[in-house]
Design brief:
The complex is a heterodimer of chains A (573) and B (293).
Chain A lengths: L27 H12 L3 E6 L5 E5 H18 L7 E5 L5 H11 L3 E4 L6 H11 L3 E5 L6 H4 L7 E5 L7 H15 L10 E2 H15 L3 H6 L6 E7 L7 E6 H14 L9 E4 L6 H13 L3 E4 L10 H6 L4 E4 L1 H9 L1 H5 L7 E4 L6 H11 L3 E6 L6 E4 L12 E2 L4 E5 L12 E6 L6 E2 L3 H7 E2 L2 E10 L5 E6 L4 E3 L2 E3 L1 H9 L4 E11 L3 E10 L6 H11 L8 E5 L12 H14 L1
Parallel strand pairs in A: 1-11, 3-4, 3-5, 4-8, 5-6, 6-7, 10-11, 10-12, 12-13, 13-14, 26-27
Antiparallel strand pairs in A: 1-2, 8-9, 9-19, 14-15, 15-16, 17-18, 18-21, 20-21, 21-22, 23-24, 25-26
Helix pairs in contact in A: 1-2, 1-3, 2-3, 2-7, 9-10, 12-14
Chain B lengths: L3 H19 L4 H9 L2 H24 L4 H11 L5 H9 L4 H27 L8 H24 L1 H29 L1 H6 L2 H24 L4 H12 L3 H11 L2 H36 L9
The chains are: A alpha/beta (573), B mainly alpha (293).
Amino acid sequence: MTLEERPWTAFYGPDVRAEIETASYRTIGDLIGSVADTYGSAPAFTACLPNGMNGTLTFDQVNEMSDAFAVYLREVAGLTQGDRVALQMPNCLSFPVAAFGILKAGCVLVNVNPLYTADEMAKQFADAEPHALVIVDMFADKIPKATRGHPIPNIIVTRVAEFLPVLPRGIVGLVQKYWDKSIKPIGVAHIRLPDALEAGRAKKASRNVEVDAYYQAVEPGDVACLQYTGGTTGVAKGAMLTHANLIMNMQQTMELISGVKKGEEVALTALPMYHIFAFTVNLLGFYWLGARNILIPNPRPLSNLKRAFENYKITWMSGVNTLFNGLSNEIWFNDSPPKHLKFASAGGMALQAAVAEKWEKVTGKPVLQGYGLTETSPVLTFNPLGKSRDGSIGVPVPSTLVACLAEDGTAVQIGQCGEIAAKGPQIMAGYWNKPEETAKVIKDGWFLTGDIGVMDTDGYFRIVDRKKDMVVVSGFNVYPNEIEDCLATHPGILEVAVIGVQDETTGEAVKAFIVKRDQGLTEADIKAHCKAHLTAYKIPKRIEFRDDLPKSNVGKILRKDLRAEELARVAAE
Amino acid sequence: MVTEFTQTLLGIMVAVIMLGMGASLTPRDFYLALRRPYGLAIGVISQYGIMPLLGFTLALFLAVPETIAIGILIMACMPGGTTSNIFTYFSKGNLALSVLMTVTSTVTGVILIPLILLLYAAALNLEIPREDIIAVLLVLLVPVAIGMTLRKLSANVGAVLEFGGSILALFFIVFIMVTWIPQNWQFLLNTTAATYAASIGLGLVGITVGYLFAKSLKLHPRNARTVALETGIQNGPLAIAIIVFTFPPDQQQAVMAVPVLYSLFIVIVSTFVTLFFRRANTAAEQKMPDSLL
């Protein structure tokens, strides 16, 4: 397929360009400064805590503060261009200040999940070798253990209520310290973020430092972020996302999403910005749009979002299936759905049709699903507003080729299943220090996603399953998602997971792990149900009843754990 | 029993607390409570249907002298107290509904209380001091309105007021228990078991029956908790004021026994009920994974 042959461009809105020739900015540093020049004293970021306490930074303030932080990193901490800086915090006002400062300084931003244990942090630090760590005080007690083998010379500590007015900041600090007891002693030498900014400002004034010079030395193809991925499938790898990758992907996504106006939107960021979806779409995209970005430090429990919805006229939000489902079930959200909302965008995991339907019923506005991976900065496809299709991940964003490939690397026929592959300016430069891993996923300029999908005749895509989860029964491909969906419709089944297991006659066989809702459910009931809905080779040959299923901390059922259990059992036998 | 000074101090505290509580509300909360008025109707029914019947039953079955029995009946016929709003707030109930129920029962009480007393105590002719009724409404509504306005002007001012109000409310609860007990120690020693049973039972059974009643009518758990607290928590100071207005000094002491004891024990009972309701609320929350992504 060539760029000229893209059938999906027919669904682009009238103002959407099929091709974005060049990025509007050389580097993210240029973007930050240039956008601040346009929106100046308008509010850029507002952190809203569960009780409604809040703090706001304007575009000018974020620009000035991130300048100060960049100067601190380069002149005071002594970092040089390309040095990694780890950032580990929930959504709060320090996030944009630190992230933008790191990128302006020409350093490489390494996002770290704040919920990581000290061991998980240690692994990531050992791989990325950061020269500095910006961390929120709630998690700073893990530093000594996490940096034992790989000391980080500069530790900058911030807090969730940083840059809030003095009284709310003080109250939040007292509550965290004495009521929640969520702030423990830090135990390593560190500097507080506001002190680091002061030091940066002083150095900037005394030495007449030009921050522009830092990022003018950066090339668009230089790495901006090391974004770690693959934690649930094995070794975590750092995807090298360049300045051009991120800027282009932000522009591609914003180009396709029509219906939003520059400088007029109020956007809700409940997803964590350390994740690539919120990083590109919310942190960079909403900023570029001149939107007021409402940052939610912790959306659990969901009532934590109530004050944000009450106090701000939210026009746009991004979320994941879990969030949309949860909000649609909250009584206060049903009573007062956000009336200024134009639409919501979903990513991160598959959006269930029932959830999308319920959301639209409650809010009266659609939720549009997109698709992508960390390695693709992340957006590859999105459903255009007004042309959204249930169960579809939409059409590729501008300047992007997406195809479904057979095992031999050739494109399958339209309507057939194949591995989704993509080509475009958002594809990562590779995995950090792992050329052999990079070679496995980037072939002839195509990035192989590992997802099996189908393209409809007009260019809409659907995801069928993960490639590695596919089961081959006597040469037939079986996709566990399809079997799980079928089983989930049985009223006696609460939860289900399907994997492939070794089988003497068919090579692999389908095995279903089932948590009963109805205790009287039998294997025969299940087989009869499957027989009514599935072809013979798809029907699970083996069925095991369980009390629960292994799940990740985001609530996804872990098929890989079930496979590992099966392998261990076979080995033992 | 309760000095003039303490009474005024408590009044001021309640006003400041309600300012903070008001700062947690928006006009929409009131609109929503009014849009579904059955919650409010259930509240009035439990307030003036269940509670007087409960009071009458207690007075009938507990072996108490007539003066005490009259005290029980008066206490049972009182409208909801402002304390119910505070406990509803801490129980994560529907505060707007609670405020509206207090207002409704207080206003309708002017007519309903004499009618109900006519039913249960035939000839008992009570003097209801209008200025006390107006004072109740003012101390409740004016601070709530100011609190809501301040929140609208600044979410931070609202959140700080709410925080301050809730801290003061906790202090208020402790203050009542700590000041009341030593001041009335002798009275506590001289009170009979039956009077204790009536004073504690009125609140405890009132909350329980109110809850079951609301639940049986399929009210949302949050609203059912609100109705329960509103039903069981009566306006004790109003009862005392009414007794002072109505009864000759030699009878006042005995008639007042239950209202005074009630005012102490309702705070203790409501504290435990609130802890229980908070746990129920947490247990009913949707389980979200550790992280959304």
